[in-house]
Amino acid sequence: MGKTIRENWNKDSSEIFERFAAGIDEAIGNGEELKCADRDLQYGIRLQNRRIGKLGLNFYYELTPRGYFTDGLNLGNHWSDGHYVNRLEVRGCERVQSIYQGDRKLFKKKEKVKLYQTVTDVRSGQDVSEDEYICPDCGAATKIGLLTQGCPYCGNRFRMDELYPKISNYYFYPDVGGTRTELAKLAIPSILIAIVLIYLPFCAFGLLGIAFNSIGFAIGSNSYQTMQSMGNFIGILIWGIFVALFFGVIGGWVFTSFVYLFRLGSFAAQRIPMAKYLGCQKQFEEFIKKSSPEFSYEFFAGKTVNMIKMLIFSENPEELPFYNGRALNPAFRNIVDVTSMGAVGITKMEFQNGYAVIYADVYLEDTYYRDGKVKRVNEVMTVIMRKNIERPVDMRFKITSIHCPTCAGSFDATKNKFCPYCGNPYRMEDLDWSVEYLDYLQK
Ligand SMILES: [Zn+2]
Ligand SMILES: [Zn+2]
């Protein structure tokens, strides 16, 4: 490998994407607080950290930036409501994942991945001082305007940039595409080889002609004719350069594109038969957009994977506020890492008394620890989710601070199954998506 620009992500960067990328390793591995993540995401990361600790493992993610993609750092994917905006950002990196037990290395894999982050921010020009926020220090629900002056419960003051933006979700996708530098590494030699290959016949023909003519000249044939055909052959040599350059560049690019298309195609075909889901996905999107015009499938898929991760990593999934199903598959307790393969495919959609019930196949790459060994497996899980369709999608919904539908009090749903103020139970599917079933796909 030549010298590529390899600046590492910086924990003190002014960009929240970088701060998150630089801190995620220690957050999962050592349980360090990741301040740029929102409370729900911190909660999910803590669950994974505890799982790793419970199995007695040490976990490392070494992330090295690979540069931006041609589609840029911003996917143009925005999702906003009156006060807030969610923005999906992606950058490429090389990820070295290693898992140890004491000094014993159980697993190490280096690969190219794309890191996605959902950045939640205040829309510019919006006054959010009256909006509720959970104090980052004491966890009490209060107003943003009060937090910036000093929390009424713990007295700590926060700058606005400590409250927003926050990362509300993140995930890795395997990366089969390339950065500009990587593309150039394949394209430039392909073009050069194509130029040489095209020029070779011209060159051979021209040179041979000149050679034969020289012999003819030497044995004294018509000198005028010889000179003329000599000129023709020199013309072929020069003209060949232009032809070879022109078709060589085109040919080299076509070849490079084919290589990338082939990689992409074989990747998708091997792992994700997406075509079978596309019909349902469109139908689902159109339906949800009736009550939530801002709905974005990308965010929905990211959120689904995030909920699945929490269910997998939780030691008591029944206690997770969004889960209303039977006991989960005990094999989940051996999972130490989950990577989304980039597909949440809807297979079925049903309507029952004002609720939408969604069946989806989720493609994951799960890392298991079992009998002293670590193994990574590609697998598909089936998830069934439910949501009240009369309520629009609430993009700021947090399980760590929900509002009681009966008395409007706000509390942390990861700690309470009932509202601590009025004692009423709440139905998560009336507030956001709830999960009713999660297991491996039954074939
Ligand atoms: Zn406080
Ligand atoms: Zn209540």
Q: Can you walk through the features of this model?
A:
The two termini are 43 Å apart. With 443 residues, the protein is α+β, with helices and mostly antiparallel strands. β5 (132-134) and β6 (141-143) form a beta hairpin. α1 packs parallel to α2 (39-54) and α5 (180-218) runs antiparallel to α6. 38% of the residues lie in helices and 29% in strands. The protein is elongated and about 115 Å long. It has 3 domains: 16-176, no CATH class; 181-271; 276-393 and 431-440, Nuclear Transport Factor 2, Chain: A. The chain has 9 helices and 13 strands. The strands form 4 sheets. Strands 1, 2, 3, 4 and 7 form a 5-stranded antiparallel beta sheet that branches. The model is unreliable at 1-5 and 70-74 (pLDDT under 50). One zinc ion (ZN) is lined by residues 404, 406-407, 409, 419, 421-422, 424.
Present the secondary structure layout.
Layout: H1 16-30, H2 39-54, E1 58-67, E2 74-80, E3 84-101, E4 104-122, E5 132-134, E6 141-143, H3 144-149, H4 160-163, E7 166-174, H5 180-218, H6 223-271, H7 275-291, H8 297-313, E8 335-352, E9 355-370, E10 373-388, E11 402-403, E12 410-411, H9 428-431, E13 434-440
Bound molecules: zinc ion (2 copies).
